[in-house]
Structures are given as structure tokens and as C-alpha cells.
Amino acid sequence: MNDAAIKELLDKYLTETLTADEVLQFRQLLEDEAQMQVLDAQLKELFDFQLQQEYSLPEIDQRIEQHVMSAIHHELPKPLYRRMPVRQWMAASAVILLLILAGGGYYLSTRQLPTQNVKVLADIQPGRNGAMLTLADGKTIVLDSLRNGTVALQGGQVVQVQNGALLYNGEGNEVVYNTVSTPNGRQYRLVLPDGTKVWLNAGSSIHYPLLFRGDKRSVEISGEAYFEVAADAAMPFVVTIDKKELIEVLGTSFNIKAYKEENGIAATLLEGRIRVAKNMLLQPGQQAVLRDGTTMVNNPDPEKVIAWKNNLFDFDDSDLNEVMHQIARWYDIEVVYAGYQPNIQFTGKISRNMTLKNLLNTLAVSGVKCQLEDRKLIVFP
């Protein structure tokens, strides 16, 4: 089947106009690795376009796994989020993307999933855009629902909100500090006075001056943040964590993850160059992990590292503990284990727009058993 024919099938799938014969062709396509590569490329292009347009991804309910399982085989295969053979995973990931884009789309089966593993009395909505701004005098301003306009005057600069982001206009005339913090269940974006762009994940903060002076631009963070640093070779950008200067930057894009509960700091370079712990120079694509006085360098998947910035959970090669940390922060819940922690390894990407119940039903496919009581999630062996 040529590329045009695959594109036609994809278009008909998304508009729910497949004939019975075309449904069969589509299933055969999902099992052909060569043709799957073409379809996968087309899906990624569509998916990236939707994200760039800030498309509100629909909630994905339990029918996602139902559809994936039935589309690949007539019998229930291994759970989607456990490791699959490459061919099955390519097919599964494609169907997930199709369902994300089509909002549920076309179903080939009515087989039920093991949702009895999940007990939820009251659903919890996903996190959203929002933060708290603390001014130099200690006054706090909730940014969650502010409309475009001026928020405050600080150090000779006008503090404004524009399209859900905080930014500064004007020439600073004194060194005063602001802090932007995101509680669990919130994320936010801001532009520092020097033009550096910052994205804060849930449970994070950044403390910064409104006027950079001296031989460096120093900010302090906690939690997780993604930076696109404005270039200034004469004044390097320095990131401090727990009162220690750990990252020195010369105009670049990078991500820092420094949640205390995750026992370590991970600095990942996407573009440019950064120096970590004063003596380690990273190349694009490298990640330095600082833990217990030692530093390791590895090469992670950059898309996974910044998936949160693109409003996605990326659970590739993640264990249950890592997945639950992300869920706890985004949905602002407490996670506890009733007994030992199950040894489950996950694979896959999921929109962060879905409700907690729908997410838990998705994870139930891989054997996760849990019960939500108010804002406490109990995970069972």
C-alpha cells in the first residue's frame, strides 16, 4: 500500500467513514511493520500540529485500551503498558494517537477492561495553568485566573500577565526579588526581565531578581523547570538549588528536575551548553544526575524529559514509583502503598488533560490496583 492510500485510510478513520472492507485493511496495516512506519510518521505530524495549536486534547477513557487490544488481536494481548514486542507496540501506540486525535473515534470491539481494579468514589480533575506570585514586599498574588493586564509595579518594571504567562516590561532600577511558585496541580510560564523563558512544572518555584547586576544572572529553583535562556556571553546564567550554584549557562535550552522526594537532581541539555557542578560540561542530549555526592551522565530521550511541558505524561521505562510521583503532583493527591510496592514497568504517552479516574483505568490494564479516598490514592500489591 502506498503512502497516499495509507493517508486516505487515516483520513477516513478520523472522520469515521471507513467501510467494512476498509476496517479490515486498516487492521492489516497495523500488523505490517513497514506500513506502520509510514502511518506512525503521519500520526506524529498530526499530533505535533495539534500540540502546537494548543489543541485541547480530549479525555481518553477506558475504551482506549479496549480498542488497542482488539485492534491488534482478536484475543486480549499482554497489557498495553507492559513491555510488548516492537510490532505490537508500534500498532498500539498508533491506535492511541488515533484515538487522541479523533476523540474516541471508531471502535472495533466491546470487550471490557479490568476496571474493577480501580475504585473511585469522586473523580478529580487534572491540573491546570496557575501559580502564586510573591512580590518583594511579601505580598502574594494568585495568577490562576487573571486576565491580561498589569499585576504590579516592581523595581521600576511593570509586571504583567499576557495570555496566561507572567512577564516584565521596562528598565529595572533596583535589585528586588520576586518568586513564582506552582503548588501541586498547577503549572505556569513566565519571562524573566532578561528575556529568559521559564516553564514551571507542578510543585515548583523560581526566585529571581528584577535587575541582574554583576558578572552573572542568578536564579534559584525548586521542583522542575524548563529554561530557554536569553544569550549574554558577558553575564552567564546560573541556577542555584538548595543554596548551591549547580548550573552555569551560556544561552541554551535545558530542563532541571530537583524534587526532594526523588532523591537527586537531573539536568538535561537540549541545545547549547551548560556546566554542571562547576566542572562537567554537557553536550546537547546529555543528562547529568547528581545524587549522594556523585554525578552520572547519560543520554535520555529529550521528548520524555520535557513531556510535561507539552502537556503529556511520558511513562516510557518508568516504574510505578516514578509514575505515582507524577500523578501525585499533577492531581494534588497523596499516594500511599498498602503493603509492598508492585514491580511494574510502564511504556506509553498519555495526555495530562484526562481526569484521574480515566488515567487510573488506563493504568489498570497493566495490573495497577488502587482505591481513591478523598485525595488519598491507596495502591495495593
Automatic annotation (TrEMBL):
What sequence ranges are listed for the domain Protein FecR C-terminal? 313-379
Q: Locate the transmembrane regions by residue number.
A: 89-108
GO MF, one term, reads:
sigma factor antagonist activity
Give the matching Pfam families: FecR, FecR_C
* Leader sequence segment: none
What keywords would UniProt list here? Membrane, Transmembrane, Transmembrane helix
User: What InterPro entries would the database entry show?
Assistant: FecR (IPR006860), FecR_C (IPR032508), Ferrdict_sens_TM (IPR012373)
The FecR protein domain covers 179-274
Q: Spell out the Gene3D superfamilies in the cross-references.
A: 2.60.120.1440, 3.55.50.30
Q: What is this protein called?
A: DUF4974 domain-containing protein
- Which organism is this entry from? Chitinophaga pinensis
